[in-house]
Amino acid sequence: MHDLVIIGGGGAGLTAALTAKKTNWDANITLITNEELSYSPCALPFVIGGEIEGLDKISKDIVKICKESEINCVIDTVISIDADRKLVKTERGEEFSYTSLIIATGGVPFKPPIPGVELEGVYTLQRIEDARKIMHALEKAKNAVVIGGGAIGLEMAAIFIKRGLKVTLIEQFEHVLARPLDPDFSVLVENKLKERGVEFILNKSVKEIRGEGHVESVKVEDRTIPADIVLLGVGLRPNSELAKKAGILTVDGGIKTDGLLQTNIDDVYAAGDCVDSRSMVTGKLMLSQLGTTAIRHGMITGMNAVGGYATFEGVLNSMILKIFDLEIGRTGLTEGDARENEIDIVVGKVKGTTRSSYFPGAKEIDIKLIFNALNRKIIGAQVIAEEGVAGKIDLLAFAIAHNAEIMDLMKLKYCYTPPVAPSHNVIVEAADNALKKLRRMMEVRKRRF
Amino acid sequence: MHDLVIIGGGGAGLTAALTAKKTNWDANITLITNEELSYSPCALPFVIGGEIEGLDKISKDIVKICKESEINCVIDTVISIDADRKLVKTERGEEFSYTSLIIATGGVPFKPPIPGVELEGVYTLQRIEDARKIMHALEKAKNAVVIGGGAIGLEMAAIFIKRGLKVTLIEQFEHVLARPLDPDFSVLVENKLKERGVEFILNKSVKEIRGEGHVESVKVEDRTIPADIVLLGVGLRPNSELAKKAGILTVDGGIKTDGLLQTNIDDVYAAGDCVDSRSMVTGKLMLSQLGTTAIRHGMITGMNAVGGYATFEGVLNSMILKIFDLEIGRTGLTEGDARENEIDIVVGKVKGTTRSSYFPGAKEIDIKLIFNALNRKIIGAQVIAEEGVAGKIDLLAFAIAHNAEIMDLMKLKYCYTPPVAPSHNVIVEAADNALKKLRRMMEVRKRRF
Q1: What is the pLDDT of residue A391?
Q2: I need a surface site. Which of A133, B3, B194, B237 has the fewest CB within 10 A?
């Protein structure tokens, strides 16, 4: 009998369990998780915002799911992995021996070492109980400060505004979404939030969170901003302590794995937010920490851990956010990433419309394609509009994964009908724009001789 | 001086003129067209339906556009091409000599040889004056019969319903959209139209259109359906008479061209609805007759006719329609096309949601991916939903053009956020469904040995 133990019941862990069962029905699978509910953390802001009515809409009973697939579900916390004896121990004193093990311990919201960070009223948002606490706090909160202009920070800033709070967002970099987007696209997001009333303090760090027991204000350089609710959205740390103690290698906190998502210890796999992934463009290790990556990790480890064979191709960090009515999408490298990786680039950038410009409801769309200037291959893209962004990001991610060149995108066989998609596709136009820039570069060079 | 003459001011002709000017500013370009307005025929139904307010919203002054780009615009009709002397003659008796010629004469709506087809109240819809006539007729029409369940027929049936008419749609094949879709997807469209009140008469041909001067009824086998407006939507014939008379070869009515879109006569190119295109999947000649194909043809001939070099890669007939709130998309081959071409296929078909299923406003989405069973390459796709179809069709068309296999689609780096795109992408799920079917086929085979 093959005994598979999975630590963690999030997107990666549960997907791994279900995939393993489908791959090898005879395997004895045990999922150990400290949460009784299965849900996507990405849905939490929308429950808090009231768009989704109640936390039970987004959560499922993990014990029930497991039972239906003949997976043993143990609600407990693993406290150690003994890789030599191949067993894990839990807080309640139970021991589970394994033939293969999948570590899917996820991430923990980072709490920066700011004085006052432990005050009441200061929240992170990752688990369902965080959402409950924030919803409760919102019943009487008036002034919100969001620390960090990442995905969660921006989503929560928008929700606080919708709930009628005064909102200040503090970001230590020059722009919000500083890693997923380039400044020219970050500004579009900032403008939308400003228009709706969010005040920004950019390029500055929080010095202190103040209050007697409960938060009262946030100090940033010379300013003190009143706050009865503070949301920390400064990133997720891979939850890899358990793995490290068992002798599993990590890089920058993320568990290091091979192409099968196996760790340095045989038969021990890792999946989800606790794992380092490789960029499909640069080949370098990075933390992806997306729900989609967790699902794919789960599928691959679930197969490999019970005798299947699947390899992980890497990540592009394709991402989409909805902030007010704005859809913000990105995939692959930014211009900044390209500079860091010393890749010469040419950028195609255009503004178009989501439907034929004369059709009622047509919205502006901003698109940027980033190409490697040496081989003309697409390496990244950013798209912002009020509709139709997801399909374009998926397409551009597919193009990056398939080494598409500028001309490949110019030949895109897109569809057209005035109420849904315009006769001139913005992807084609952005590629054309990049090609024109390349030709101009060649012209300039020619003239020098 | 290079003299380029272009016959036709539709999407293909005008794009060719503008592209030629950009390619070679010194070329002397003359565009001869019998319409003073530039517009997309695809927009006409939406003007008739009142969604777009007025024909002037969708039309531009072609003389003005030409003037801005220093293109000579002649409003006239070409009556002959003299390929030996390299000149064209117009109805008004003018002669234009050319160094190179682009024929972009478009298509003419087919009028089937049914008795009564010339009665008043029987319309086709291709030109702006057709739209004007139909709008006028709609002021007092009560009973509409649509002959032909193609794109125009369905769009117009929906518009007639919205305008409060009783609508009967007659289609000689077993299902509407019989060429672009397979029956299982056609049925979804039929159901939507039935739900909104359209009566269907399928698999039957119109015998006669009756009336005294003006249409009064339509006879289909043993039934007589009252009608004060009849819309003929039974296809477009390539307008290739002029070309044929000049000794230019055609196939099934469409002008035959090489990879540069040059006809059998040197320096004579052809673009748009009058031209045969090659399927990117089968390599066979076919009539594409889409606005997107016309634009691409226009770009390529516009370059080639003034000394540039561009090749036409072929068509996938990526198409999208909006009928009521339903978006209907398709690209590549249908199952029927595959059978005709003797391609063994495996089909992945799933139902999903457009957003996370728990998110308000999430709609059902139906998707079908058609793979060549021998090499697992995607060769066609159909998608129907109330949102998000265009991006998926474009992506799948790109996948077909790039010889993507089942596994390539399963590795799609899609984006996810509950309000816009679900955590499990339907393209990935449909590919997975196809893979499962292939594996089952292998299992069945194995057991026989």
Answers
A1: 98
A2: B194
Which of B280, B304, B328 is at the close of a domain? Answer: B304
* A412 and A392 assigned to the same domain: yes
User: Are B273 and B356 in the same domain?
Assistant: no
B15 is in which domain, residue-wise? 2-38+50-107+236-304
Q: Which residue has the tokens 């809409």?
A: A57
Query: What residues of A are annotated to the active site?
Result: 42
The pLDDT tens digits of the residues spanning B326-378 come to: 999 999 999 999 999 999 999 999 999 999 999 999 999 999 999 999 999 99
Q: Give the nearest partner residue to B416 out of A57, A291, A419, using CB atoms.
A: A291
Q: Shortest Cα distance from A342 to chain B (angstroms)?
A: 24
Q: A93 and A118, same structural domain?
A: no
Burial grade of B93 (CB within 10 A; 0-12, 13-18, 19 or more): exposed
Q: Average pLDDT in the B208-223 region?
A: 96
Q: Which residue of B has its CA nearest to A291?
A: B423
Domain boundary among A209, A232, A255: A232
Interface test with B, best of A415, A425, A429 (most B CBs within 10 A): A415
In a domain, A313, yes or no: no
Contacting residues of A for B389, CB less than 8 Å apart = 420
Q: Pairing state of beta strands A254-255 and B72-75?
A: unpaired
Residue A115, chain B, CB below 8 Å: the answer is: no
Measured CA to CA, the distance from residue B81 to residue B274 in angstroms comes to 16
Angle at B101 between CA B100 and CA B104, to 5 degrees: 155
For residue B291, give the nearest of A321, A389, A416 by CB distance.
Answer: A416
Q: Is the predicted pLDDT of residue B420 greater than 90, yes or no?
A: yes
pLDDT range class, residue B448, cuts 50, 70, 90: confident
CA distance B386 to chain A (A): 11
Could you tell me which of B19, B24, B5, B40 has the C-alpha nearest to residue B301? B19
Type and span of the H or E element at A444:
helix A426-447
Residue A437 DSSP one-character state: H
State the catalytic residues of B: 42
> What digits encode the pLDDT tens for the residues A418-448?
999 999 999 999 999 999 999 999 989 988 8
What pTM was computed for the model? 0.97
Residue B309 lies in a domain: no
Same domain, A102 and A128: no
Q: Which amino acid is at B60?
A: K
Give the number of A-B residue pairs with CB atoms closer than 8 Å.
Answer: 199
Residue B435 in contact with residue B406, Cβ under 8 Å? yes
- Segment B103-122 shows an average pLDDT of 96
CB atoms < 10 A from the CB of B192, how many?
19
Q: What is the pLDDT of residues B128-180, one digit of tens each?
A: 999 999 999 999 999 999 999 999 999 999 999 999 999 999 999 999 999 99
Return the structure tokens found at A292.
């989609």
How many helices (H) and strands (E) chain B has is answered by: 12, 29
Q: Using an 8 Å CB-CB cutoff, list chain A residues near B52.
A: 358-360, 418
**Residue B373, token pair as written in the block:** 């069973």
Q: Provide the domain count of chain A.
A: 3
Chain B residue closest in CA terms to A292 = B423
Euclidean distance between CA atoms A422 and B291, whole angstroms: 10
